[in-house]
From TrEMBL:
The name this protein goes by in its record: Cell division protein FtsQ
Membrane topology: Single-pass type II membrane protein
Cellular compartments annotated: Cell inner membrane; Membrane
GO biological process terms on file: cell septum assembly; FtsZ-dependent cytokinesis
Main subcellular localisation: membrane
Keyword Membrane: yes
GO cellular component: cell division site; plasma membrane
Length: 236
């Protein structure tokens, strides 16, 4: 009797194990079959001016060739898109079962010209070379190699100060020399010599004394603020 119970228990165990194995095999084949499902729909959203949605779609389709839904690596696709198109700042990609790929794209915002060769985005990063005169109205930033972020940040600070204290004047150009000496050209063609020390303090001093300089009723060529006390003004 005891042996019979043992045999029944063993038979039940083996039957259960066999069923489990069959289920696992079924699931594996089901997943493999599902993975054969290809991406059939690619949706691209975002405001695009410099990159064609059609070009992005064609590029993605080439990368998805012979790849099943579950095998699509969205992180790799994101990296490839951002690397291929310099005008794309960020791509966000998601998959939706059973066959949809959603791509949301953010384009670069051209903000400044760096050393007359490159375009900086609104984060101070180089992302493209300057083409034709399309971006001639962007602020010009010049400085030593690999110092674009430093010059960009200084420009942002000075521009913020100027916009707060003066609604008429704007910065057209900022130059940082190899010895860290700073110059600023305003939209009224006044050149400011700010030197290498107390940059912000000297710039604020210019804004403070500018109304008094204007009372001279002479066209201003430059204002030299590199003195501890006072300034030197050059006339046209």
């Amino acid at each position: 009797m005891f042996k019979l119970i043992q045999r029944k228990g063993l038979l039940f165990y083996l039957s259960s194990l066999l069923i489990l194995i069959i289920l696992v095999i079924y699931l594996i084949f089901s997943v493999l079959k599902w993975n054969e499902k290809k991406i059939n729909t690619i949706t691209i959203t975002g405001q695009l001016t410099h990159v064609s949605k059609k070009n992005i779609e064609l590029s993605v389709k080439k990368q998805l060739k012979n790849i099943g839904f579950f095998s699509v690596n969205v992180n790799k696709l994101k990296e490839n898109i951002e690397a291929k198109y310099s005008w794309i700042y960020q791509a966000q990609i998601t998959k939706k079962w059973p066959d949809i790929l959603n791509i949301n794209v953010k384009e670069q915002e051209p903000y400044a010209i760096w050393n007359r060769k490159y375009i900086l985005n609104d984060y101070g990063e180089i992302f493209s070379s300057v083409g034709k005169d399309k971006y001639i109205n962007l602020v010009k930033l010049d400085g030593p190699e690999k110092k674009e972020l430093l010059v960009f940040k200084k420009y942002k600070i000075l521009s913020s100060i100027l916009s707060h204290d003066s609604k008429q004047m704007k910065i057209l150009k900022v130059n940082c020399s190899e010895i860290n000496s700073w110059e600023v050209i305003l939209n009224n063609k006044i050149l400011l010599y700010l030197g290498s020390d107390d940059l912000i303090k000297r710039f604020r001093r210019f804004i403070k004394i500018y109304p008094y300089i204007l009372k001279q009723n002479k066209p201003i060529k430059y204002v030299d603020l590199r003195y501890k006390r006072g300034v030197a003004v050059g006339w046209r």
